[in-house]
Design goal:
Layout (H helix, E strand, L loop, with lengths): L1 H14 L3 H14 L4 H13 L3 H17 L3 H17 L3 H18 L5 H12 L5 H18 L2 H17 L3 H16 L5 H17 L3 H16 L8 H14 L3 H15 L8 H15 L2 H13 L7 H8 L3 H14 L3 H17 L3 H18 L2 H18 L2 H17 L3 H17 L3 H18 L2 H11 L12 H11 L4 H8 L3 H15 L4 H10 L4
Length: about 550
């Protein structure tokens, strides 16, 4: 019969993770004859995978009610959990909490001793991760025991991931990371329910970045990418995957590819808005714009990051630094660090804090922060954080005037960044090495190091850093503001504010053609090639 054919083909598509076909076929079969709980579960999963979240919630509710009518209370509780799980994922906390309360009441009224007890403990355990990691660890340990008792591999993978992240928050990363790897083994072996696979991938990768474990983050990001690409119809998690890929690409110096990936992520998150990791997507986009010198777009990215809750720092504070707004940079990074209580959050802020404190000549504060960062790096034993710490220590020593000690530390920092294949960070260290050489009277060494940094900045398109370094080395025949007419200086300031030629023309009551001629003259007089370089020049020379 046709309905049996559609149902059979829908089940086959589901088993092969062809989500679009599975959703269409199972939906058609359901219209012809109401599906039973097994097939409703399949249809609910496919709805989640193709991004139909409202339909997914309705299907779990139907399956829940059907199981209650059939007297399958334990299964009804499980379906209530999956419904709440999806609602929580999209910020519907009250509605999700209501379904959890119903599930808990069903367990208690029926005095059920079943694996669903462990599932219902998950939200409590996850919720305490930030404020009470010790309590979360105890809750996840109890869930592990329940999962082991009932032989539930999905619950075990979820619990082990939670245990690993709790241990990281308790500053026991060496114990936590093997648990994350073990949970991922279960995922890749196909032992985990489709509802949680993507969430577990993202949770593990985020944990790796928290502790600066670049090797693990890169490895699991590759696996997540392969998983997403093997399912062309997959809607959720594709954005998170792109963001995680962007983080790796940015570090490796593949900025054009990183910008393309993060722009795709931001587009995915715009419809519908509010999906997980949207703030991180906007933050990563802003970081790339900052590095490339597109300050207006960077400002917008950091603003949109703040709209979704997370702090835009250290990126926004570093933007203020490169704009020459030292007071704003110092105030922002000081406040951000004062509000950071756990060492994971502090470790993300401390490198920028040291850089800004050195710039404002708060040498003692820079040295104290560098020492704190070194202590955290030793405790976490993460090569990426060690590289940040070595650079910070070298910068602090240089600010203290101990160029010889700084040079030794900075050489080690450069080697560390080279081994991590992070060209931008390595080039920034070479600038510091050049300054140390200059203080020691080695002008040839200083020129060699700075020219090497210039080459990397030019290749990466790091316009603000290129302009600053060329100015330091005197390698460009740039003229100061005295070489510009008053009108050209006025246009330069507007260009540096990120304003288009058309808007400048409207503001100054000029033709767009005249503005274009002024911009061209500015580029020629200052030896510049694009608006980003002009923006960097303006801020470097305090012209805005």
């Amino acid at each position: 019969m046709p309905e049996l054919d559609a149902l059979g083909r829908g089940r086959d598509a589901y088993s092969h993770q062809i989500w679009g076909d599975a959703y269409a076929l199972l939906t058609a079969a359901d219209r012809q004859a109401p599906l039973g709980p097994d097939d409703l579960e399949r249809l609910a999963v496919t709805a989640r995978m193709v991004g139909k979240d409202a339909e997914c919630a309705d299907l779990w509710a139907r399956a829940h009610q059907d199981c209650l009518r059939l007297g399958e209370t334990e299964r009804a509780v499980r379906y209530a959990f999956w419904l709440a799980f999806g609602l929580f994922d999209h910020g519907e906390m009250a509605r999700g909490g209501g379904w959890l309360a119903r599930a808990q009441r069903l367990l208690e009224e029926n005095q059920l001793d079943c694996v669903e007890q462990g599932y219902l403990l998950m939200p409590l355990a996850v919720g305490g991760m930030d404020d009470d990691p010790a309590g979360s660890y105890a809750a996840f340990s109890k869930i592990v025991d329940i999962a082991r008792l009932f032989g539930d591999t999905s619950l075990m993978a979820m619990a082990r991931t939670g245990l690993g992240r709790s241990l990281i928050r308790l500053e026991r990363a060496a114990e936590g990371t093997p648990l994350l790897d073990e949970a991922m083994v279960a995922v890749t072996a196909g032992e985990v329910h489709p509802m949680v696979i993507g969430d577990l991938y993202c949770a593990v990768i985020e944990a790796c970045w928290e502790i600066f474990d670049l090797r693990r983050a890169q490895e699991w990001t590759t696996v997540l990418t392969d998983w997403c690409e093997s399912q062309p119809d997959l809607a959720p998690f594709r954005g998170q995957c792109l963001v995680h890929r962007t983080q790796i690409l940015q570090l490796k110096g593949a900025w054009p590819a990183a910008l393309t990936e993060v722009q795709r992520a931001c587009e995915l998150y715009s419809d519908p808005p509010g999906q997980p990791a949207i703030a991180l997507a906007f933050y990563q986009q802003a970081e790339l714009y900052r590095l490339r010198g597109d300050f207006a777009k960077a400002e917008e990215g950091y603003r949109r990051t703040s709209e979704w809750g997370p702090s835009p720092h250290p990126g926004l504070a570093l933007l203020r630094l490169i704009q020459g707004r030292l007071d704003a940079a110092e105030a922002a990074i000081r406040r951000a660090l004062e509000e950071a209580s756990d060492r994971i959050t502090r470790s993300r802020l401390l490198p920028a804090y040291v850089e800004i404190m050195v710039a404002v000549r708060e040498v003692e504060a820079a040295r104290a922060a560098a020492d704190e960062l070194s202590t955290i790096a030793e405790a976490l034993n993460a090569p990426l954080l060690r590289a940040f710490a070595a650079r910070a220590t070298g910068a602090a020593l240089l600010a203290e005037g101990d160029a010889r000690a700084a040079l030794t530390t900075l050489r080690a920092a450069w080697a560390a960044w080279q081994s991590l294949e992070a060209p931008f960070e390595a080039a920034c260290v070479r600038l510091l090495i050049g300054n140390a050489c200059r203080l020691l009277g080695d002008e040839d060494g200083a020129e060699t190091e700075m020219n090497a940094a210039i080459s990397v900045f030019r290749q990466l398109g790091a316009a603000p850093y290129l302009a600053r370094t060329e100015q330091m080395t005197g390698t460009t025949a740039r003229r100061t503001a005295a070489g510009l007419t008053g009108r050209e200086l006025e246009v330069l300031r507007l260009v540096a504010a990120g304003i288009s030629n058309r808007s400048i023309a409207e503001k100054l009551v000029l033709s767009e053609k005249t503005v274009a001629r002024h911009v061209s003259n500015i580029f020629t007089k200052l030896g510049l090639s694009n608006r980003a370089a002009a923006t960097a020049y303006a801020y470097e020379n305090n012209l805005v």
